[in-house]
Amino acid sequence: MLKGKNALVTGSTSGIGLAMARALAEQGANVMINGLGDPAENEAIRASIEADFGVKALFSPANMLKADEIQAMVQEAQAQFGSVDILVNNAGIQFVSPVDEFPEEKWDAIIGINLTSAFHTTKAVLPGMKEKGWGRIINTASAHALVASPYKSAYVAAKHGIAGLTKTVALEVAEQGITVNAVAPGYVWTPLVEKQVGDTARARGITEEQVKQDVMLKAQPTKQFVTVEQVAAVVTFLAGDAAASITGVTMPVDGGWTAQ
Question: What span is annotated as the signal peptide, if there is one (predicted)?
């Protein structure tokens, strides 16, 4: 479905981002992945995408807090692939605290990585997409782009900002063959969440099953975690021609959370 297209996915060496990158590659797109962490592990992830799907895969260690590194990442992808046709802004971090105790450096980092980096990548890829008359920008939002939870002020503010950025850019490029959408997952089962289950169970003195059902899935009517494959499937759909008339949308994949 995406053969001949070139994709850049930020924050894509694990979890949801890696599932997105692999799903795009499975559909035939060349992919640049991005993240921090161990260089050897990142190289193994990159090589596995090439081996598994027969596409070209690149890796960028660009720090999403640094505009110059973001610009260089996009330029490298364009130079190596010839274009960036699909941009997935997935990089994100979280911190939980009452707002009057929220560390200012944590606020700045969350807004920077979760929101401002998407501005920088979008600004960098749009000229090339406009030139080709085709492009897909897909932002990872969250159920928290549509509803709030206490103690997550920076994250909720950033994700609401992503929803607004998505709508605005979609309107600006609506006549140029470019769509801009966001995917808004609820609680997704990832290694990071799995670790949080054990930590929360020990901290609260309850079972892991109680953590899942009474804490994490309390807001999700299905009482089931979203899977990374389900989120990635929505991304590949939005990246394809079948979704050409869908733009400016923040699409929940949240087990009914935001229907309440």
Answer: none
| CA 200/CA 209 separation, integer angstroms | 11
Dig out the tokens for 189 from the structure: 């089962």
From edge to edge, which strands make up the β-sheet containing 86-89? 57-60, 30-34, 6-9, 86-89, 135-140, 178-185, 250-253
- pLDDT more than 70, % of the chain: 100
pLDDT tens track for 137-164: 999 999 999 999 889 999 999 999 999 9
CATH code: domain 6-186+226-259 is: 3.40.50.720
Distances (CA, A) of 114 to 79, 90, 175: 26, 8, 27
The length of the chain in residues reads 260
pLDDT bin (cut points 50, 70, 90) of residue 203 is confident
Q: For residue 144, what are its two tokens?
A: 């928290």
Strand pairing class (57-60; 178-185): unpaired
Q: Domain ranges for the chain, please list them.
A: 6-186+226-259, 188-224
What pTM was computed for the model?
Answer: 0.95
Please give the backbone phi and psi of residue 259, each rounded to the nearest 5 degrees, phi first: -80, -15
Determine the Cα–Cα distance for residues 14 and 163; give it in Å rounded to an integer: 23
Among the residues of the chain, which ranges form H helices? Answer: 15-26, 39-53, 67-81, 104-111, 117-132, 153-172, 191-204, 208-210, 228-239
- Tokens of residue 210, six digits: 């109680």
CA gap 17, 35 in Å, rounded: 10
The stretch 21-36 carries a mean pLDDT of 98
> Active-site residues: which are they?
155
